[in-house]
Amino acid sequence: xxxxxxxxSPFRENAEYALRxxxxxxxxxxxxxxxxxxxxxxxxxxxxxxxxxxxxxxQNIAFWEQSAKPPRSDVLAQMAKVLGVSIPELxxxxxxxxxxxxxxxxxxxxxxxxxxKLPRREQDKVCEFVSAYVAQYKQRAS
Length: 142
Known about the structure:
Layout: H1 10-21, H2 31-43, H3 47-54, H4 58-66, H5 73-83, H6 87-91, H7 106-115, H8 120-141
Helix pairs in contact: 2-4, 3-4
């Protein structure tokens, strides 16, 4: 039983607050911001995930996506690397919108990207384990 003055969890309060105060972008995005948002979405990242990968805050990513200003020069190289493009491609606002990369998104893509850097024998071990896990999951689900 909860005490009379017990409050809901901070996480729940924060999530509810975020839903109440979040808003849609009212004006159209400048080309630079739209380009960055398109590249991020094509890579399958949220603003928070991209921010963590480049060592920035989610607020900075949101700012860059909503402004005509490109990311700072000290962030450009890391951001281009994480998004899988060159710096000129990242800054080219006249380039066609990127196509979504096929395959898993977010954490799974990053993990398998790291696995692809392992020696072939180690990659085979990871594939064996994942295949067995997926087969076991399918068996339980049916």
